[in-house]
Model the fold of this input.
Amino acid sequence: MRRSLPAVTLCVAAVFFVVITICTAAAQKKAPEPMILLLEGAKLAPVPFSHTTHVEKIKLDCIACHHKDKNPKEPDKCVTCHLLKEVKEGAPPAKDAFHKNCQTCHKESAAKGIKAPVKCAECHKKQAGAN
Ligand code: HEC
Ligand code: HEC
Ligand code: HEC
Ligand code: HEC
Done:
């Protein structure tokens, strides 16, 4: 009898772990980390982007970037609304939307003394095809 106790404890712990994992996964669609941003037909190097930096380190809300989604925790890609060339329903083309979102905040941060990429090559740095 004495031997079965640890097994029961382990079993309960395992069930808890599974339940918690499933619940967390259901509550939030997880973004890949890191992400590599690249528009169709892009000429410059792709842009690496980290949710860990922006969400965990500097504590931004999802809505700071996923600004029009009904549920910002389950966002669509920016290009769903921001087309490659045309303006659709007032939404500027994708390149302008990305630049405005990323660069406005990075410039403001830099002005406050928090170092964030502002030069072309600091964002456009990932070689296409490389990992
Ligand atoms: C804060 C980050 C950031 C900075 C700084 C930045 N970009 Fe971008 N840029 C992006 C993102 C994100 C995209 C969309 C993903 C992609 O690269 O295709 C983009 C897209 C583009 C595109 C369209 C896609 C392509 O590669 O043809 C061009 C052109 C571009 N940027 C030029 C520039 C130039 C020129 C500069 C410097 C004057 C610059 N960017 C600085 C983040 C940045
Ligand atoms: C600083 C800006 C920023 C913040 C804050 C942010 N995201 Fe994102 N997220 C992005 C960008 C940019 C993409 C790439 C979108 C694309 O490919 O068009 C993305 C993509 C995603 C994707 C993948 C979407 C897809 O279908 O490919 C998910 C999921 C996601 N984010 C969830 C979240 C959640 C949840 C939060 C809040 C906890 C969050 N994001 C906060 C910028 C941000
Ligand atoms: C569901 C549609 C939708 C999605 C998804 C979406 N946007 Fe937008 N966005 C719009 C519309 C519509 C506008 C123009 C009207 C407005 O700003 O209210 C806009 C405007 C913008 C602007 C300009 C705001 C200004 O003040 O000039 C930026 C920057 C922007 N979006 C960035 C992004 C980024 C980055 C993503 C992805 C992380 C994204 N958007 C996803 C619909 C969308
Ligand atoms: C609302 C503010 C804000 C927005 C929006 C934002 N950033 Fe940032 N980003 C920061 C700050 C602040 C830092 C510096 C973080 C640190 O290292 O403490 C940073 C750092 C970075 C870095 C360098 C650190 C790392 O994670 O590699 C990259 C690359 C970057 N951002 C890309 C982007 C791109 C691409 C976008 C647009 C899709 C974006 N950011 C949008 C505030 C922002």
User: Anything to note?
Assistant: Residues 18-27 have pLDDT under 50 and may be disordered. Residues 37-39, 42-44, 46-47, 95, 98-99, 102-103, 106, 117-120, 122-124 surround heme C (ligand 1) (CB under 6 Å).
